[in-house]
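ok so heres the complex, two chains, lmk if somethin looks off
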Amino acid sequence: MKRYLFVIVLALTISGSLCFAQTSQPTINEDFKPSTLNQPGKEFPQVNSLGYVRFRIEAPQAQSVVVSLGLGGTKGGTPLTKAEDGSWMGTTAGPMDEGFHYYHLTIDGGIFNDPGALNFYGSTRWESGIEIPAHDQDFYALKDVPHGNVQQILFPSKSTNTSRRALVYTPPTYGKDKNKRYPVLYLQHGWGEDETAWSNQGHANLIMDNLIAEDKTKPFIIVMTYGMTNEIKWGGLKNFDITPFQTVLVDELIPYVDANFNTIADQQHRAMAGLSMGGMETHTITLNKPEVFSYYALLSGGLYKPEEIKDKSKVKLIFLSCGSFENPDGVKNSALALKEAGFNVVSFVSENTRHEFQTWRRSLQELAPLLFKD
Amino acid sequence: MKRYLFVIVLALTISGSLCFAQTSQPTINEDFKPSTLNQPGKEFPQVNSLGYVRFRIEAPQAQSVVVSLGLGGTKGGTPLTKAEDGSWMGTTAGPMDEGFHYYHLTIDGGIFNDPGALNFYGSTRWESGIEIPAHDQDFYALKDVPHGNVQQILFPSKSTNTSRRALVYTPPTYGKDKNKRYPVLYLQHGWGEDETAWSNQGHANLIMDNLIAEDKTKPFIIVMTYGMTNEIKWGGLKNFDITPFQTVLVDELIPYVDANFNTIADQQHRAMAGLSMGGMETHTITLNKPEVFSYYALLSGGLYKPEEIKDKSKVKLIFLSCGSFENPDGVKNSALALKEAGFNVVSFVSENTRHEFQTWRRSLQELAPLLFKD
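and the predicted structre for the whole thing:
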């Protein structure tokens, strides 16, 4: 126990915000369990019932091991200390936000993943991931309900001269009645991520399976592909050219999906949504191509101004969301302005979450039932 | 250049087999290129035209960085040395075998993955992977041909009280003619791997796409699921109980696949194959369940004795293979004995490969055209 207290003191000291070493420390519930995102058989990292995370890294000759995960989303970090068995151990200085977080280790100045955790593609690299059990985690849990499939397709792309990958979620009933056709949601990841994010980190397939099992949404197909966002850096956004991705999406992927899946291949049955930079892409492409999509959704990914949309009659729904620690007033005000201008708009604020996947899981949970209602 | 020669000398010295430091060193072709399995945008590791691999790891304060990849498959390793820019660099002491290899880093006594490389599930953990271009790599290349899909299914398993994952390859024509039905190959990974191995490491989908495009094989479905092999250690094989996996495969997965895909659901149109420990599972299950499979294939995964098979009329094909650096005589002799006993048997030896995926990619390439011919 003592060594964990010491770690906390050290963490607080290093963070620079608190220096009351050796004084009363909060008690940490000693009910740590292996994270659900650990690699098979790995005991660490562990999470306790309050959302504290404890790490254990074996690197006996290392000089320094720091975990990037700290309080307040991605801010700060957790330095580990040498334990008696030669491993490096440490616990976050407080509880983490509910949901999924990326993290990595800095070992002797180099960046590596935690060998105990599964990896997820974010920040333009495969990073370690951890899951903090959430009070509402049931909606993305793997349950004993009929499951849809997630399939990798390789579609030809003349504009980029290659076969490109997309992941396609088909609902549990898909293919049972060979004449039944489904609407389609094109769902984009954020900067630094790729087409795997929405199913791996987001559990989009399980969210849909569970909603469908409770008859809370119409079944529909979800198509996820790489948004070509990773070449640019934040700050360089103004120079981002949407044309290459718009061409891949609208001129190559959509026709391929419509030719190879049982889709309802018209504007009224096609939605586009994206998180973060995928929201920016959604914003631009839906405005550029009003004849292609009729449902628009930006998840922590910008806003629409009423005057941007030329033909109001073509838009069935605008959905705007973010975490309560992001810009909820911006979302609410934009929704109000759109509503006043006569749009069908729904806004959603995820309580106590930031620019992370728990916000976007909840957003999809709210969005899906609103899609393709007629 | 000099520092790489030093690394080679050091590597040979440490290996203990050669100690002729400072004498004539072989010239390394300086045509290194980033490995095709690098994470997006990563320059290292690199491979040259002779199959040497060069590593570069940033960990400025580390005391020691060693790469597990060395000569002769997984034997030995490659210690890195501090370069002028503070990174750790080194080159393998010789060319690696063609094809895919797992590897990891030992940094200050701890085991981590190379942040430059993609990860693949092997050795019961996600390991770094590298691809040495092979003279015959065309057969598993991503080409401009019609592509089948690889889809994740979640099937209910009463015996294990959960939803289990399988990956299903469907050929390019699948679903186009809604009345067409396909035979099925159940294809198992080896010890320490899981259901992702055959598509990620093995490129089973691309091998099939290419064979089908050249009309060299009948199109068929491939189903890959986790063989529950990872709980046991080598040496404990004698205690391995096949029953739990056999139940999942035969009583749960096969009925689910037959109910949800357009399969020809009979013994004559069902094959089982496995690599390494998956071959051991194939051997046991095909013998236990002659009414389920008619094509049997062991890839570096054991042999059949003629007297093990009770009803010869139920077996359409036995396929046995391995790498030339494994046990080719064992494979050839077993094939001979089976042939003399009247079985339809084909053996295949992959030249200059070991107990690794290049052997198994080639084996699938040889096996597929032999399946479901009538």
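quick notes: The mean pLDDT of chain A is 91. thats all i got rn
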